Each structure stands twice: as structure tokens, then as C-alpha cells.
Fold this protein.
Amino acid sequence: LLLVQDELRDVPVLVFANKQDLPRAMSVDDITEALSLSGVRQPWFVQSSCAVSGAGLVEGLDWLSDQILKK
Ligand SMILES: Nc1nc2c(ncn2[C@@H]2O[C@H](COP(=O)(O)OP(=O)(O)OP(=O)(O)O)[C@@H](O)[C@H]2O)c(=O)[nH]1
């Protein structure tokens, strides 16, 4: 997985679990599992979203902004 590369150790990773308005969209938990994120040491966050309505987009970007400002 790309995320284990040493030079990316401190890079925060934001994942959008998009298309949550569609019944077959993968859930946040499914995506977390599929990407094996619980074993990833760098900061990561999976935000559910719907790009069509905009739901979740600001929340995800707020998280990323907070991570960057922390450095
Ligand atoms: N219903 C729904 N459709 C979406 C959402 N986000 C994107 N789409 C639609 O998905 C289609 C593909 O979007 P693109 O921006 O081209 O994304 P892509 O990565 O090329 O393709 P995907 O594999 O569909 O993500 C477009 O018709 C978008 O309008 C969403 O949250 N809900």
C-alpha cells in the first residue's frame, strides 16, 4: 500500500466515502477495512460524502486543514 512508504509517514490521508446517496455505496467502515487503514500510522480520516449535494465535503476538508495547521 502506498501509505506505508517512509516518505509519506507524516502525510495526512483524507478519504472520501463518496456517493453515499446511492444504495450500493461502500460505507465508511467498509472503506476503512478495504484500505486496511487501522494499521496505518499516519493520520487518516474517512469522511462520508455526496459530491452531488456537497454533503460531507466541508467536513472532510476541515479535517485536512486542521491536520496541516497542526504542523
Ligand atoms: N449519485 C452520485 N453521483 C456522483 C457522486 N459523485 C460523483 N458522482 C457522479 O459520478 C460520475 C463520475 O464522476 P467523475 O467525477 O467523472 O469521477 P470518476 O472518478 O471519473 O468516476 P467514478 O468512478 O464514478 O468516481 C459523474 O456522473 C458524477 O456526477 C455522488 O456523490 N453521488
Summary: The mean pLDDT is 91. DSSP finds two helices and two strands in the chain.
